[in-house]
Amino acid sequence: MARVASQTRASGGSSLLSIGQVLARLNPEFPDLSPSKLRFLEERHLVAPARTESGYRKFSSTDMERLRFVLTMQRDYYLPLKVIRGYCDELDAGRQPELPGKVQHAGSMLPNERRYTRDELIRESGGNAMLLNDAVSASLIVPAELFGEDVLAVLRSLVELQRSGIEPRHLRGFRAAAERELGLIENALLPVARRKDASSRARVAEMSREIAGQLEIVRSSLIRSALTRLDK
Predict the structure, then answer these.
(1) Are residues 26 and 83 in the same domain?
(2) Residue 110 lies in a domain
(3) Are residues 31 and 74 in the same domain?
């Protein structure tokens, strides 16, 4: 993070943003971002804002790029902060690392995350308005004005499943299963969540993503194991 810090301090005060300005720019995309979350990310050495003589944090365009990248990796890929930090440290050292799983380094710190309107989502997925409406009714997709790549991937999968005779209504149990997993996560985090300080709230957000990622591994393994019975 040393390189980021030096770039931040060298960028000049006129282009630096306060915490309030950072939140104003990033909250539309990341509604859960808060001052405590920003401080938590700084404590974990994922961002290194400059400080004024009075001690106020000031964020550069480099810091903003880093923040958007970290938050996207958490939200869309459920990567733990320690994995994201390892990647950033490698990048700051001048190397070209690859993130695990589906995330690939593509010459920029931030993946090309496009946002789709309803009509664009339907067109890009190859589906139709009825399928999207059914997916929303089955709680498989949350209604919104703009949709991300993850929603596009879900709708594309629903298009393929429909060709096999599997409709969104058949998948209503997926939402119930997700709610049960959420209950497991909430119970596991209860001791930390009872603490009301800002650091604990940020820690709950990080731990919840880590646990969700581990549950996804277990679920995928169980499905793969069950599929082997079909081959016999």
Answers:
(1) yes
(2) no
(3) yes
**Looking up tokens 């997916």, which residue turns up?**
135
Q: Find the domain containing 149 and state its range.
A: 118-166
Distance CA 155, CA 109 (A): 27
Kindly state whether residues 67 and 81 are assigned to the same domain. Answer: yes
Q: How many domains does the chain have?
A: 3
Q: Is the separation of the CB atoms in 121 and 144 below 8 Å?
A: no
pLDDT per residue, tens digit, the chain (232 aa), is: 433 333 434 444 458 999 999 999 998 888 888 888 888 889 888 999 999 988 899 999 999 999 999 988 888 777 778 888 888 888 888 888 876 555 544 344 444 567 899 999 999 999 999 999 999 999 899 888 888 888 998 999 999 999 999 999 999 888 888 888 888 888 888 887 787 666 676 677 777 877 877 787 787 788 878 877 766 5
Query: How many Å apart are CA 43 and CA 81, to the nearest integer?
Result: 11
